[in-house]
Specification:
BirA Bifunctional Protein, domain 2; 8-stranded mixed beta sheet; single chain; alpha+beta; globular; about 210 residues
């Protein structure tokens, strides 16, 4: 499958985006802007993005809500306009009340002289459809899929390309204007109508030995 990304992102297809990104970083073969993706599963889209945050671990954790805001913008393009997209527990994207995806991150245990992590891997997952052998949707009311919410015949490549464009746009905004635009966009769609809790989010970031 061909996936076309914005020029600032380096497209890398792999079966397991997160594991591949971490392994290549440790080998010194990956760097900021590497965008790992997989369409190995027709029902789920997986993305991992390598960043080199020149900021503290807590500030680097801002990438999780940024990714979810980008994901909500992506879904606004792919889903019907009446579909409600919200954030839950600083991690999940919720579509019409059901969880349809999430964002997470890992950082290097190695830091520079200022205590900033040497690298970060940001991971995004979205559930496009249910496997044929999945449990009846009525037994899992808190979980949904993008096709059940109105995206007919969801295409993993379309999802990856659309998310990449919105992610890069938000990254440029973050670099130019800081975190507040992200926080405002998050608060508007958060179930609790609160800005993201960065203390809580930073504690959820996985630390990987480098």
């Amino acid at each position: 499958m061909s996936v076309i990304l914005p020029p600032l992102l380096n497209s890398i297809e792999t079966e397991n985006p997160f594991d591949s990104a971490v392994e290549r970083i440790k080998q010194g073969k990956s760097g900021a802007g590497d965008f790992y993706w997989s369409t190995a599963s027709p029902t789920t889209a997986h993305i991992s993005i390598v960043l080199e945050p020149d900021v503290s671990p807590k500030q680097a954790a801002e990438m999780i809500p940024l990714a979810l805001v980008a994901l909500s913008d992506c879904l606004a393009v792919l889903l019907p306009p009446q579909v409600a997209v919200e954030f839950r527990e600083s991690k999940f994207v919720v579509v019409n009340g059901g969880v349809a995806g999430n964002a997470s991150a890992a950082i290097s245990s190695a830091t520079d002289q200022s205590g900033n992590p040497q690298w970060m891997v940001l991971s995004i997952m979205a559930v496009l459809s249910r496997p044929k052998d999945a449990e009846d949707p009525g037994h899992q009311p808190d979980i949904t899929t993008l096709d059940e919410e109105g995206w007919e015949n969801p295409d993993p490549g379309d999802f990856i390309e659309t998310f990449a464009r919105h992610f890069l746009s938000w990254m440029i905004s973050w670099e130019d204007d800081g975190f507040q635009p992200v926080a405002r966009a998050w608060k508007f769609k958060a179930e609790d109508k609160q800005e993201p809790d960065l203390d809580f989010i930073s504690k959820s970031v996985q630390i990987i030995e480098s």
